[in-house]
Design a protein that fits this description.
By secondary structure, the chain is of the alpha+beta class. Among the domains are: about 15-45, no CATH class; about 230-395, C8orf32 fold (Roll), CATH 3.10.620. It has helices at about 1-20, 30-40, 45-65, 75-80, 90-100, 120-125, 125-130, 170-175, 245-260, 280-285, 290-305, 350-355, 395-405, and strands spanning about 70, 105-115, 140-145, 155-160, 180, 190-195, 200-205, 210-215, 225, 260, 285-290, 305-315, 320-330, 330-335, 355-365, 370, 390, 425-430. The protein is elongated and about 100 Å long. Mean pLDDT is about 75; it is low at about 25-40, about 410-420, about 425-460 and about 475-480. Strand 15 and strand 16 form a beta hairpin. Strands 14-13-12-15-16-17 form a six-stranded antiparallel beta sheet. A five-stranded mixed beta sheet has the order 1-3-4-2-18, with helices on both faces. A three-stranded antiparallel beta sheet has the order 7-8-9. Helix 1 runs antiparallel to helix 2 (about 30-40), helix 9 (about 245-260) packs antiparallel against helix 11 (about 290-305) and helix 10 (about 280-285) crosses helix 11. It starts with a helix and ends in a 54-residue tail after the last strand.
Length: about 475
């Protein structure tokens, strides 16, 4: 019975409200209050139209400043709508922090809230806020709700810079130095800041402290993952059909050293001196530094079917260095491409070299390999999956893109409260400096060196009896050139 009486009373008040709205003598403020009570809009002007007008007003002002348009983040708006009862606009700093936590792709956030008895008047309430939006703002979201007891409306605007996914191509465009990335090791989503003036970049997660990508730039400043410098090129050289693998390795190794004048990294101020080269570029120029000759040597050996990787790391106290490691007949050889021609009488067995060469990153054509436990002391193992984690950056990027394209917005906390005047708060995402780019190698361009030719003269290497070593099995026979 009570329910029936309540329903009758409600319908009666609703009818009375509409009757009052038809009264031409009613004041404008009373008309608005009554309209809000009965759910009427301002001559058809509703929250959706207000959202459209806010976006149009923002982009009109940005047009005058020649700023790029901001776009509506539908996912963020849906998230805000789903948290209607939790959005706390009294504490905008906490609000922006909450958004940053739930939407880590946002780098900078700016929020503003205002209330009014009329929807259309909210546009003027936000006018000063619109002026605060800088050129880097890319997205915005608007949430509109009714104030209790029908006293008016409140609106919340959140704007920010939404980061694009990191990729070598995006970095090469040099439009921004901050990107969104996800660590493949621990899944940590974060902003990644790089230096646009650097030519060698090591991406490192600030949470697990592990590397998850190494990039370098060519002379044109185009970035690519380091393993993509191994293009599959090898010189048009021919070997006797009866030459054994060890003899061919020494011959190729010697040819690379003889045809590539080593150019020492001496400058950190000239970006072109830190440019990486492909094998063909190094062959053509007949010069390069340690990573250029190592890429050349590895590309050639890989084309001949060898198991080989390029190592980036440190040599003693000399700082950054690059070299190759190859496995032939079950034995690991360290191939140094910046010194004189190799001496087969003194084979560079990895087991005999000790800890002078310490790799941080390895790569071949297919993948990049990073230390599984960076803090552990290097034990001389270049191949074990226990010590090296395999990373294929392109596949990881494609997986992340597929995940984001099919991902629904994650909900989480907020509450809206009426304000008599606009309230503004901002937040900038923290970017750990460990994410910043690290210079890997520099290249000093040496003048006066004649450009290389496409024809190669392969110097035969005489293979002596290999000396005894801990890396050489006792049953192994000497490999000699017949």
């Amino acid at each position: 019975m009570k329910r029936i009486l309540m329903l009758v009373l409600f319908l009666g008040l609703l009818g009375l409200g509409y009757t009052l709205l038809q009264n031409p003598n009613m004041s404008a403020s009373t008309r608005i209050w009554v309209g809000n009570m009965v759910g009427a809009t301002e001559s058809g002007y509703g929250p959706d139209q207000l959202k459209v007008d806010i976006v149009d007003r923002v982009n009109y002002q940005r047009t005058l400043k020649k700023y790029p348009f901001v776009r509506v983040d539908v996912g963020l708006e849906q998230w805000m709508d789903s948290k209607l009862e939790e959005l706390d606009t009294d504490h905008l700093e906490a609000l922006t922090q909450n958004i940053k936590t739930q939407h880590p792709r946002y780098y900078r956030l700016l929020a503003c809230t205002a209330s009014s008895s009329q929807l259309q008047s909210l546009l003027s309430e936000f006018q000063d806020f619109f002026q605060k939006l800088d050129q880097d703002t890319t997205h915005m979201a608007v949430h509109v709700s009714r104030i209790a007891a029908g006293l008016g409306y409140r609106a919340l605007i959140v704007t920010g810079r939404k980061l694009e996914d990191f990729s070598p191509e995006a970095l090469s465009e040099r439009k921004t130095d901050v990107f969104f990335n996800t660590c493949p090791h621990c899944g940590y989503e974060h902003a990644c800041k790089v230096g646009l003036d650097q030519r060698g970049i090591n991406l490192e997660c600030s949470k697990c402290l592990r590397s998850y990508g190494v990039l370098a730039a060519d002379e044109k400043g185009t970035f690519r993952y380091v393993n993509e410098f191994l293009t599959g090129y090898h010189p048009p050289a021919h070997f006797p059909y009866d030459s054994d693998p060890l003899h061919q390795m020494y011959t190729i190794w010697s040819a690379v050293i003889r045809h590539c004048a080593y150019v020492k990294d001496t400058s950190r101020f000239n970006a072109k001196r830190d440019a990486w080269q492909t094998a063909l570029e190094t062959q053509t120029k007949m010069r390069g530094d340690c990573e250029d000759s190592s890429v050349f040597l590895a590309d050639w050996l890989l084309a001949r079917g060898y198991q080989v990787r390029v190592a980036l790391g440190h040599y003693g106290d000399m700082g950054g260095h690059a070299w190759c490691v190859a496995k032939v007949g079950g034995i690991d050889y360290l191939l140094e491409s910046t010194e004189g021609p190799p001496d087969p009488a003194k084979p560079p067995y990895v087991a005999d070299i000790g800890n002078r060469y310490v790799p941080d990153t390895l790569f071949d054509r297919d993948a990049i390999y990073v230390r599984t436990n960076p803090r552990d002391r290097f034990n001389g193992d270049y191949w074990s999956t226990k010590h090296w984690t395999r990373i294929q950056p392109r596949e990881l990027a494609e997986q992340a893109l597929a995940k984001n394209s099919g991902k629904k917005a994650k909900p989480e906390s907020r509450t809206v409260k009426a304000k008599s005047t606009p309230t503004i708060a901002s937040r900038t995402a923290d970017v750990d400096q460990k994410q910043s780019a690290k210079i890997l190698m520099n290249v000093e361009v040496m003048k006066g060196i004649k450009e290389g030719q496409m024809e190669w003269q392969i110097t035969e290497v005489v293979m002596p009896e290999p000396p005894a070593t801990s890396a050489q099995p006792a049953t192994a026979k000497a490999l000699t050139k017949k």
